[in-house]
Amino acid sequence: MPMYRGLTKALKHEGYQERRDLFGAPYDFRMAADGLEQGQPGPGTGGFTGPHLSRLRLSAQTGYYADLKQLIEHAVEINSSRLATLVAHSQGALVALYFMAKQPSRRLPSSAALRK
Q: What is the pTM of this model?
């Protein structure tokens, strides 16, 4: 996604590495947040791909949110169980909020804080 190249470049400059602690998860912006659960991605989603994103494939059987959850769990696992940070823009923030609202509640460590 061209609009994220600057952010991706800045994160890499700070030491982040693709497929280690920097992943992308684009979605089909034409679909409502609840429509992404249905397991039939539109042409805009084709998988978590792009020159600066991970190469994980979006599964038509499970839907976007199941694959996003799997991507986050994978990222946490390969990074010594460090908490994941989701960064979203525009309607993506609503998609992220919808996703998080559907997850089972977990207590965060007392050191966890919201960042702007």
A: 0.72
